[in-house]
Specification:
Two copies of one chain form a homodimer. Chain A has a domain of 107 residues: Arc Repressor Mutant, subunit A (Orthogonal Bundle). In chain A, 53% of the residues lie in helices and 5% in strands. The first copy, chain A, has seven helices and two strands; from the N terminus they run αααββαααα. A two-stranded antiparallel ribbon of chain A has the order 1-2. In chain A, a hairpin with a 5-residue loop joins strand 1 and strand 2. In chain A, helix 1 crosses helix 3. The radius of gyration of chain A is 21 Å and the shape is elongated. At the A-B interface, helix 1, helix 2, helix 5, helix 6 and helix 7 of A face helix 1, helix 2, helix 5, helix 6 and helix 7 of B.
Chain lengths: 160, 160
Amino acid sequence: MSSGVEWGVHCCLTLAWLEGEGPVSTGRLAAWFDVPTEYLKKQLQALTRAGILESTPGVQGGFALARRPESITLMDVVTALEGADELFRCTEIRQSGVGGLGGGDEFRRPCGVSAAMLRAELAWRRELAAQTIADLMSASPEASAERTRRRYREMSRPLP
Amino acid sequence: MSSGVEWGVHCCLTLAWLEGEGPVSTGRLAAWFDVPTEYLKKQLQALTRAGILESTPGVQGGFALARRPESITLMDVVTALEGADELFRCTEIRQSGVGGLGGGDEFRRPCGVSAAMLRAELAWRRELAAQTIADLMSASPEASAERTRRRYREMSRPLP
């Protein structure tokens, strides 16, 4: 899985904590996590296309959660950033070589190897879909939310 | 996941069906599934290093299962071919940028994002570990095992 997933989930969690602070710019999020702005922008745009974030244009613009943290699952974030493709891709090699000759009716049923691999993948997806950004908020130390807001306000304060 | 996993699992299943036929060469397995010999060889060597296959050298040499099909799980095959690395890699971005400044004690506990992602991954691994090559044999149509043996004998018969 690309590092974009780590960034994406952390951005959602931080934006959940910063609810009410107005849109947060890509530059600030990039500095927040010390990650490259241009690559982070791609992840934020993908999350926006998926309806997880909403984007406000302009100099005061940036990103905020588009839905309640209870309604954003880890599966939503992973799918937005990595696509919905299976981890295991079945190319039906059971019937492509000389080993498959004469298989006929046997191949009407889905491949057992593929079914077994997908069963495991389903367990992964089910677990990702059962965990939301709100769950991550509850599981975090109380201090993290507070410190995030305090630090963000310091960072956003206009210079005197 | 690379296509090597599909090949690896299918090779194990086919070698389980061909138990008693002697070692099966890389060339025959490659023709069996119509996959490139050189790349397949790498997968077979990795499975051998992991103690899943045993390799017999020489002109009559090739590969056979090194353990009973009941003792080879899909997790074994995936780990042998893809390594044991996590799908999700945590790089601790929570503490690397300005957002992490002053976090101190909060970061003693494992990152909640990483923990949540790993929980899902564990569900995947658990399911892979619960399924063996013997399970794949039982789930396959009876005809597949028979046809595999018949076809392999035809393929191996010396020309008249």
